[in-house]
C-alpha cells in the first residue's frame, strides 16, 4: 500500500514518533512517500494521505487542502490535548502577562487564538477518514471536544526506546558530577511548567536538573531568577548524554500543563527513573498507578508528588511493563492496520454540518485577525507566545487560512 505522508512541521517529540514509525513501516507492507514541502500536491497513485504535521494547524490545513485537490482520502495523527487550562491558567502563572490594558489585550488574543485554532482543528479532524490517537485519554478528548465518532479513531500505542534500559550513568557522572537527582527533560517553556517545578523544590534538599535548552528567553530568565543553588540548567543533550542522564537520575518530573504523550516520560521510565507527572498527560495511560501525580497549577501538589517519587526506591516493574508491552514495530503495525481499516469505511459526509464548521472557523479567524494586527507593533517582542501569533499574521498564515476557508464555502467544496 502506498501512502503520501506530510511529515512533522516541527521537531521535538513528534520527530521521534515519526522517524521511529518510518523505520518500521516498510516491514508492514506500506510504502511512505514524503512531501518535500508544506502544501505539496501528491502526484501518483496513493491509498491515502497521512497528516503528521499536527499540532501546527496552519501547515496541516494547507496539507489537507493539497491532499483533497489530489482526490485523496486523509488520515491524521491527531496529537490533541485540550489546551484551555494552559492558555487560561498556565500563561498567567508563568507571569507572561502585562498589567492593565495590555494584559486585557493579551487575554483577548489568547481567547481568539484558542477559538480560531479549535475551529480549524474541527474542520481538519472531521475531514479525515481516520484519526490516530496515542492513548485512550487522547481518543476520549477527540470524542468529547470535537464529536469525532469512535469508529473513526484508532489507538496506536507509542513504542519505547529499548536502548535506554541499558544506559549507564558513568558519562553523566563524569561530565556533570551529579547523581540521584530530579531530572526534567524538555525545552524550558511555559507549557512544560518548569517554573512551578523550581518553586516546588526551592526549599528542598533536592538537586533539580533541567535539560533541553529553551526557545523562550523571557521564560528561561524567569526560571533562572526563581532558581536556587539546587537547580542546574543544561542545554539539549546528545543521545549518549541523555541516556546517561536518565540512568543517573532518580526521578523524572514532567509537570506540564498538557502533553499528548510526553515521550521523555516513557524514555526515563525505561531507564528506571521514578516518574512524577500531571493528569494532563497522555503518558498516564502507559504509567498507570506507577506514577506520582500532581496538579500543574498547584506548587504544593507538585512538591508532594516529586518528593514521593524521589523518596521511593528506584522502580523496575514499570520499566519491565513498558519494555514487554510497547514497541515501535507494534506501533507501525497498528498504523498499517489503520490504513486497511480506513478503506472499509465510507468517506466522511460533507453536508450542512460541514459548511457550518467552515463558517465557524471563518468567524473565529475574522475575530483573531484584527486583534493580531492591532497588537503586532506593541510591546510583545519578548513574549514568545504572543510573538508566535504576531509572526503567524505577519507571514500570512492566518490570512491564507481565512481566505481558503471562504473559498471553500463559496464554491461549496
Summarize the main sheet: 6 strands, parallel
Strands of the widest sheet, in order across it, are: 2-1-3-4-5-6
Q: Radius of gyration over alpha carbons?
A: 22 Å
Number of strands: 12
Distance between the termini: 28 Å
Helix content: 40-55%
Q: List the secondary-structure elements in sequence, H or E.
A: EHEEHEHHEHEHEHEHEHEHEHEHHHHHH
Q: Which stretches are poorly predicted, pLDDT < 50 over at least 5 residues?
A: 379-383
Tally of helical runs: 17
Give the strand content: 5-15%
What integer is the average pLDDT? Answer: 87
Q: How does the overall form come out from the CA principal axes? A: globular
Q: Look at the helices and sheets and give the structural class.
A: alpha/beta
Describe this structure in words.
With 413 residues, the protein is an alpha/beta fold. Helices cover 51% and strands 12% of the residues. The chain contains 17 helices and 12 strands. The chain has helices at 13-25, 57-69, 84-93, 100-127, 136-146, 170-176, 194-201, 217-226, 239-248, 263-270, 284-287, 299-311, 317-325, 328-343, 352-375, 384-394, 397-411, and strands at residues 2-6, 31-34, 48-51, 74-77, 130-133, 153-155, 182-185, 208-211, 231-234, 251-254, 274-278, 292-294. The chain has a 6-stranded parallel beta sheet with strand order 2-1-3-4-5-6, with helices on both faces. The chain has a 6-stranded parallel beta sheet with strand order 9-8-7-10-11-12, with helices on both faces. The longest helix has 28 residues, at 100-127. It is globular. It starts with a strand and ends with a helix. The model is unreliable at 379-383 (pLDDT under 50).
